[in-house]
Design a protein that fits this description.
Blueprint (H helix, E strand, L loop, with lengths): L1 E5 L11 H15 L3 E7 L10 E14 L2 E12 L2 E8 L17 H18 L6 E5 L5 H8 L10 E6 L7 E2 L2 H6 L4 H4 L13 E2 H8 L2 E4 L2 H9 L7 H6 L4 E3 L27 H14 L8 E5 L8 H13 L3 E6 L4 H13 L6 E5 L3 H10 L2 E4 L9 H7 L3 E5 L4 H4 L17 E3 L4 H17 L1 H13 L5 H15 L1
Parallel strand pairs: 1-2, 1-6, 2-5, 6-7, 7-10, 10-11, 12-13, 12-15, 13-14, 15-16, 16-17
Antiparallel strand pairs: 3-4, 4-5, 8-9
Helix pairs in contact: 2-3, 3-6, 9-12, 10-15, 15-16
């Protein structure tokens, strides 16, 4: 099968979040299972060009119909760690992708509408005819719309579109100028409630367009798919998902075990595995030395991730002091997305600076993240919502027992040691709490810390059981292939 992934990110060359990891990891596994995969991405000025091999001109004169005229584009080709990628450079007067960052511009809807239009023109003019177009998040939500309203009439009628939603919070809201620019026009048609009109505003909604027009729609975990349909997590799209429920579901993300494996990890002090945790003790000692923490008989609780409302920042903050009160140490690695949150954690960092049992690292450091996963005993993931989550899956592989809130993909990957009656004890791998307040967090974290102190053999059993789980891309890729085959049929 010939598959083209169209996205705004692909790790490690363009990565602003988990989307980039998913696009790369899924593409790699699809190729490993015998399929041809190409990626189409914007050519940002802020890309990691050092991760692209053999970048060269692929299609120099791409004229893209735009706003009643045309925008000239160039397409470059290169390999990102073995993945064949095409990068579209737009020569528009707004310099859409030469802004020094991936997102956060006031004209983001126009920028990514132009990229989507250019991607479709590149396929058309270069005579590429994949079996599947796999589009991701709101940035490419217009591609299924353009496929079925325009390009199927130009020899692309056999293409099928799969659309994956990674985060319902950001949907791409814009006005009719997008319709005029892309050549879709006809606002009276597209502003119909069963087309692109936003469910709450007099505007077009890119994500809704993707849902309405794609042949299949999925989000990144089965439980998050349920949440999107039946709770506020759907962010206003619940009715649209209900209307299209027959083609909507959830496929759990995977992770790349080539990058995340304590047996192969070059960033950690000693290798270890589920059958022999000896090396993990050495990693714990090395982490304490790196962070100038006290070497003592205490568990290390950690948090790794963004410091924002989605991640339950109020519970992250509470977990620091509560862990210390329960004779545990605490390590945090994260960066804030809002100035108020950033200021709060900097104050805490200064306040706790002389405490030998805590270290707050505000920012992101890839090597340190690996060291924390390997050296910590318990990781807390108290998210308000979590479409899939990679942190808890990585932590399992490193024998870092997760304490998670029962939302989204967290509930599809972590199974409570004490209370999960659907699994025997030997298949459980962490602790789950459901309330969004401090008492909920404490209930989960207390059980994890108590097990560490009171029954080390059982705690080590729990670590080993978590490490035995396979959350690679192998099974998710098979599920995507089943989707592709279904919509082709």
């Amino acid at each position: 099968m010939y598959i083209v992934q169209i996205a705004s990110e692909c790790a490690p060359v363009i990565k602003a979040g988990g989307l980039g990891d998913v696009v790369y990891g899924l593409s790699q596994e699809l190729e490993a299972q015998g399929h041809t995969v190409e990626l189409i991405l914007p050519k940002y000025d802020c890309m990691r060009y050092d991760n692209i091999w053999g970048l060269h001109d692929a299609y120099r004169e791409l004229s893209v119909p735009w706003n009643g005229a045309a925008v000239q584009c160039s397409v470059y080709c290169g390999w990102v760690h073995g993945r064949l990628c095409f990068f579209i450079e737009t020569h528009d007067i707004a310099h859409s992708f030469n802004r020094g960052r991936v997102y956060g511009e006031s004209d983001d809807p126009m920028r990514f509408a132009l990229f989507s239009k250019a991607a479709m023109e590149f396929l058309l003019q270069s005579n590429k005819r994949p079996d599947i177009l796999h589009c991701h998040d709101w940035q490419t939500g217009l591609i299924p719309v353009m496929l079925y309203e325009m390009y199927q009439y130009y020899g692309m009628d056999h293409l099928r579109a799969c659309y994956t939603i990674h985060n319902f919070k950001h949907q791409g809201i814009a006005g009719p100028e997008i319709l005029a620019a892309t050549g879709l026009n006809r606002p009276d048609y597209y502003y119909q409630p069963d087309k692109l009109r936003d469910n709450h505003n007099n505007a077009i909604n890119f994500m809704k367009g993707g849902i309405v027009y794609a042949n299949n729609v999925n989000t990144v975990s089965p439980h998050h798919a349920w949440e999107a349909r039946f709770s506020e997590i759907g962010c206003g799209l619940q009715a649209t998902l209900e209307q299209h429920q027959g083609k909507f579901g959830g496929i759990l993300n995977g992770i790349n075990y080539d990058m995340w494996s304590p047996q192969e990890d070059t960033h950690i002090t000693a290798p270890y595995c589920a059958e022999d945790l000896t090396g993990k003790a050495l990693c714990k000692k090395a982490l304490r030395e790196r962070l100038l923490m006290r070497d003592c008989e205490k568990p290390i609780v950690c948090f790794i991730g963004r410091l924002d409302q989605q991640k339950g920042v109020h519970l992250v903050h509470h977990s620091i002091y509560w862990s210390l009160s329960q004779r545990a140490q605490f390590v945090l690695l994260g960066s804030a997305t809002e100035s108020g949150i950033n200021d709060m954690f900097w104050r805490e960092k200064h306040h706790l600076n002389d405490n030998p049992d805590v270290h707050l690292e505000l920012g992101f450091n890839e090597e340190l993240a690996h060291m924390i996963y390997a050296g910590a005993d318990i990781i807390v993931v108290p998210s308000n919502y979590e479409p899939c989550g990679l942190t808890q899956v990585i932590s399992l592989k490193y024998g870092n027992v997760p304490v998670v809130r029962g939302v989204g993909g967290l509930i599809n990957t972590v199974f409570d040691w004490d209370y999960d009656e659907n699994l025997p004890e030997e298949e459980r791998n962490g602790f789950v709490f459901f309330q969004s307040d401090s008492s909920g967090l404490e209930s989960g974290l207390q059980r994890a810390i108590d097990l560490w102190y009171k029954n080390q053999p059982k705690f080590q059993q729990l670590q080993s059981q978590g490490m035995a789980y396979d959350y690679s891309w192998k099974d998710p890729a098979k599920k995507y292939i089943e989707v592709y085959d279904h919509i082709r049929a």
